[in-house]
Amino acid sequence: MNVGSIIPAELGDAALAYAALGVKVFRVRRNKTPYANCARCDKQSSLYVKHRPEECRCGVPTCHGFWAATTDASLIRKWWTEEPDANIGAPCKQNGWAVIDIDPRNGGDKSFRALEVRVGVLPGTVMQLTGGGGLHMPYLSPGYDLPGEPFPGIDFKHNGYILLAPSVHASGGRYRWAGDGLFRTPATPWPDTLLPRKERRPVPAQRPAPRHRFPSVANSAQRPGGGKLWTVDDLVQQVMDSHEGGRNRSFYFAACRAHELAAQGLIDLRDAEDGLLSAAGAVGLTDSEARASFDSAATRPSDKGWVA
Ligand SMILES: [Zn+2]
Ligand SMILES: [Zn+2]
């Protein structure tokens, strides 16, 4: 990790400091209302010409919100001379970042603990305290789209932006970098365990695996119609990959499959129960909901036509 840079206390000076370090910034009003686009870029205007913000060539330096972000010192000086109190926004993806945004007011701290129980402790990275009790963990962008709000109170910010220290939070507190207060460019890759499953890097073959991960006959089973094998991990993964609207259904499906496989002696029911309940916590189901669903799956009538 690099030595870190002092970020000045004045917002305009701070914006210039970030830009000098290669971070693209734009100004954000305290009340978050955006700056107006020019008429050609304003969808409400009769002069509007259809185009994608990222392809805009209008040259008006505030158009399209965070697409206006820049490292141009003279423009940044002009913006903060006009509005010395403007907050400092930094678009995540354009800066090569993806940020875990934890908001404890919406249960983000609880979700985060459940997430780490499931996927293991996340790799260390720079951290920013939001001034409102929240926490930002910026990583290097994985180059893939990430789900917007994967867990209650946790946001994966990639297409959006974050405010940078010393911006002022709605609660009146200031954003600041954790620890010594110095800014360090995020340098830790986005955690592999939080990638959409299809984008994950393959696990090296020589890595030792826990007993129940071996796809042996004793603890796994044939997937319907395929040569692959069902394991407890597959069932857990299915719950982790479910999106918000489908969590209950995914969990119930995985629970049904776990009971079926266990009844055939192909997996250990206790392993499956432990794994599925911790996955349920990580995706925001309450423990009692998950237990009730797991138990009701045991009494579901056998359905041989059930397909994943
Ligand atoms: Zn424009
Ligand atoms: Zn435009």
Detailed description of the structure:
It is built from seven helices and ten strands. Helix content is 27%, strand content 12%. Residues 205-228 and 302-308 have low confidence and may be disordered. It has helices spanning 11-20, 73-82, 108-119, 232-240, 247-263, 269-282, 287-298, and strands spanning 26-28, 87-91, 97-102, 128-129, 135-140, 154-157, 161-164, 176-177, 221-222, 229-230. The chain has two domains: 11-193, no CATH class; 214-298. β9 (221-222) and β10 form a beta hairpin. The protein is elongated. It has a five-stranded antiparallel beta sheet with strand order 6-3-5-4-8. It has a three-stranded antiparallel beta sheet with strand order 1-2-7. A two-stranded antiparallel ribbon has the order 9-10. The two termini are 44 Å apart. It is α+β, with helices and mostly antiparallel strands and 308 residues long. Bound molecules: zinc ion (2 copies). One zinc ion (ZN) binds at residues 37-38, 40-41, 56, 58, 60, 63.
Q: Could you say which overall geometry the principal axes of the C-alpha atoms support?
A: elongated
How many separate structural domains?
Answer: 2
Task: Provide the gyration radius in Å.
Answer: 24 Å
Q: Identify low-pLDDT runs.
A: 205-228, 302-308
Number of helices: 7
Measured by DSSP, the beta-strand proportion falls in 5-15%
Strand order of the largest sheet: 6-3-5-4-8
Average of the residue pLDDT scores? 83
